[in-house]
UniProtKB/TrEMBL annotation:
<feature type="domain" description="Uncharacterized protein TP-0789">
    <location>
        <begin position="65"/>
        <end position="246"/>
    </location>
</feature>
<dbReference type="GO" id="GO:0015031">
    <property type="term" value="P:protein transport"/>
</dbReference>
<comment type="subunit">
    <text>Monomer.</text>
</comment>
<keyword id="KW-0653">Protein transport</keyword>
<dbReference type="InterPro" id="IPR029046">
    <property type="entry name" value="LolA/LolB/LppX"/>
</dbReference>
<keyword id="KW-0732">Signal</keyword>
<keyword id="KW-0813">Transport</keyword>
<dbReference type="InterPro" id="IPR052944">
    <property type="entry name" value="Sporulation_related"/>
</dbReference>
<dbReference type="Pfam" id="PF17131">
    <property type="entry name" value="LolA_like"/>
</dbReference>
<dbReference type="InterPro" id="IPR033399">
    <property type="entry name" value="TP_0789-like"/>
</dbReference>
<keyword id="KW-0449">Lipoprotein</keyword>
<protein>
    <submittedName>
        <fullName>Outer membrane lipoprotein-sorting protein</fullName>
    </submittedName>
</protein>
Length: 249
């Protein structure tokens, strides 16, 4: 399917779902990857704290992806590790290893809306994009940052989500997520995410080298800057093990 969205009559819901499926399809088949990135936390006054971390990811066929994030700097977070098993239908499984407590903490589903490592990203934002987690509705065409885009509403199907809805901008040429607005449970705008500086890998997979999440309600922001990504590194299920989370290096 190349998403010939105008070739037959569609409801707004059908068109939204077709766009979401095409977005997912175009980012399928990447296998596994490793990366290095910085997480920059900014308060409302613009003061910054930078954390450096490594990320390992494994694509899972017919389910959500697995991801392991390891914090290397600064010293107060060094050794902290976050393991996430995203699922298409069931609630995600997530664990955090806290070296100061020498303890692995399970992130309960009802706590998924909480902040991830004090950032403006929530634990649920760290999951892979899965069609089954939302209902979709096409809203309109628009231009964002000079790129012709579809604008969709996606509503989480999980009652434990901290969001009532998300409004997203997906570019028409490559079906990349350009921007997302997150609305809280009172339907007020909570956060805005923008992806910048896309780079193409393996002639198929686009990745933003910079992502900013701005909290509209407290003025804080978190920026993720990718320094390096490698694909087809040979990762397997054995590299994503809750039992060995304390020993990851």
């Amino acid at each position: 399917m190349t998403c010939s969205l105008g070739s037959y009559a569609q409801s707004a819901e059908d068109k939204g779902l077709a766009i979401a499926k095409e977005r997912k399809l175009r980012d399928s088949g990447w296998g596994d990857s490793t990366g290095e990135m910085s997480m920059i936390l900014r308060n409302a006054q613009g003061d910054e704290v930078e954390r450096k971390m490594r990320l390992k990811s494994l694509e899972i066929t017919n389910d959500g992806d697995k991801a392991l994030t390891i914090f290397d700097q600064p010293l107060d977070v060094k050794g902290t590790a976050f393991l996430s098993f995203s699922h298409a239908i069931e609630p995600d499984d997530q664990w955090m290893y806290l070296p100061k407590l020498s303890k692995v903490k399970r992130i309960r589903s009802r706590n998924k809306s909480g902040p991830f490592m004090g950032s403006e990203f929530a634990f649920e934002d760290m999951s892979s994009f899965e069609i089954e987690k939302y209902t979709f509705k096409y809203l309109r065409d628009a231009t964002f940052d000079g790129q012709a885009s579809f604008v969709l509403e996606q509503v989480p199907t999980d009652n434990d989500s901290g969001y009532s809805k998300q409004i997203i901008w997906v570019d028409k040429q490559h079906y990349r997520l350009l921007k997302a607005e997150f609305y809280d449970r009172k339907d007020s705008l909570l956060k805005e995410l923008v992806n910048y500086e896309f780079t193409l890998y393996l002639d198929k997979y686009w990745r933003p080298m910079r992502t900013e999440m701005f909290n509209e309600q407290n003025g804080k922001s978190t920026e993720l800057v990718i320094h390096q990504i490698n694909f087809n590194t040979g990762l397997s299920d054995n590299d994503f093990n809750q039992g060995t989370l304390k020993n990851v290096r």
